[in-house]
C-alpha cells in the first residue's frame, strides 16, 4: 500500500515540500511570523509562491528581518536602494506597500494588544476546518477573506485583496486547506483540537 499523497501543489521541489510539510496551514499566533507572511503574500501578487519562497531569505536580509518597526521608518531613499537589489522582487508598488503595511500593522498592534488577536477574529478565533477532496474544490476567496480584505484596506493596508488574504489565511493556519487525503490534514486538525 502506498503512503497517502501530500497536496499536489508543492510538486517535487524540496523547498516547496518542506514548506508544505512544516509550515503551510500550521496555526500561527506569532505577530512577527504573521507580519512576514502578510508581506510575502503581497509580494506574491502576479507571481508563483515558489518564486517567493526561493527569495524569502533575501527578503529577510533586505527588509531587516521583517521587523515592522524598522520597515515603518523606511524612506524613499531606502526604497531606491531596495530597487537596486536584484535578489528580491523589485516592484516599487509592492515595496512601498510593505512600508505602508508596517505602519498599519503597528497601529493595529497598539490598538488590539497584538496583531494576532485582531487578524484571527476573521476566522472566529479558531481555524476553519474544511474537508476538500480535490484541488478543484478549494476556492481562491471566501466570505472571511472578503471581510479581512475590506477591513485591512480601511486601516491603510495595500496588496491585501481577497485572494491575497485567502492565501494568507491558508498559510498561517486560519483554515485547514490541506486535502483530506494529505497526511498533513489530520495532523493540522489535531493541532487545532488541542489548541
**Measured distance between first and last alpha carbons:** 33 Å
Taking all residues together, what is the mean pLDDT? 94
Query: Strand content of the residues, in percent?
Result: under 5%
- Envelope shape: globular
Q: What is the name of the CATH topology?
A: Endonuclease III, domain 1
According to CATH, what is the class?
Answer: Mainly Alpha
Strand neighbour order, sheet with most strands = 1-2
- According to DSSP, the number of beta strands is 2
Number of domains: 1
CATH architecture: Orthogonal Bundle
CATH superfamily: Hypothetical protein, domain 2
Written overview of the protein:
The chain is an all-alpha fold and about 200 residues long. It has one domain (about 10-195): Hypothetical protein, domain 2 (Endonuclease III, domain 1, Orthogonal Bundle), CATH 1.10.340. The protein is about 55% helix and about 0% strand. It has a two-stranded parallel ribbon. Helix 2 packs across helix 3 (about 50-60). The longest helix has 21 residues, at about 90-110. It starts with 13 loop residues before the first helix and ends with a helix. The mean pLDDT is about 95.
Notable traits:
195 residues; mainly alpha; Endonuclease III, domain 1
Secondary-structure map with pairings?
Elements: H1 14-22, H2 31-44, H3 49-62, H4 68-71, H5 76-83, H6 92-112, H7 115-119, E1 128-129, H8 143-154, H9 162-171, E2 175-176, H10 183-193
Parallel strand pairs: 1-2
Concise description?
The protein is an all-alpha fold and 195 residues long. The protein contains 10 helices and 2 strands.
Amino acid at each position: 500500500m502506498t503512503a497517502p499523497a501530500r497536496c499536489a501543489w508543492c510538486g517535487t521541489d524540496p523547498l516547496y515540500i518542506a514548506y508544505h510539510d512544516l509550515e503551510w496551514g500550521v496555526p500561527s499566533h506569532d505577530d512577527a511570523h504573521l507580519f512576514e507572511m502578510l508581506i510575502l503574500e503581497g509580494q506574491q501578487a502576479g507571481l508563483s509562491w515558489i518564486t517567493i519562497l526561493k527569495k524569502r531569505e533575501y527578503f529577510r536580509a533586505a527588509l531587516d528581518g521583517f521587523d515592522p518597526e524598522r520597515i515603518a521608518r523606511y524612506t524613499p531613499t531606502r526604497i531606491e536602494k531596495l530597487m537596486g537589489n536584484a535578489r528580491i522582487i523589485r516592484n516599487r508598488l509592492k515595496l512601498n506597500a510593505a512600508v505602508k503595511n508596517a505602519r498599519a500593522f503597528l497601529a493595529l498592534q497598539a490598538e488590539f494588544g497584538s496583531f494576532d488577536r485582531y487578524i484571527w477574529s476573521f476566522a472566529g478565533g479558531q481555524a476553519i476546518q474544511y474537508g476538500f477532496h480535490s484541488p478543484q474544490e478549494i476556492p481562491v476567496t471566501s466570505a472571511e477573506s472578503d471581510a479581512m480584505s475590506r477591513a485591512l484596506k480601511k486601516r491603510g493596508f495595500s496588496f491585501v485583496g481577497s485572494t491575497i488574504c485567502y492565501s494568507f489565511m491558508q498559510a498561517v493556519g486560519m483554515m485547514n486547506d490541506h486535502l483530506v487525503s494529505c497526511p498533513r490534514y489530520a495532523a493540522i486538525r489535531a493541532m487545532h483540537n488541542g489548541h
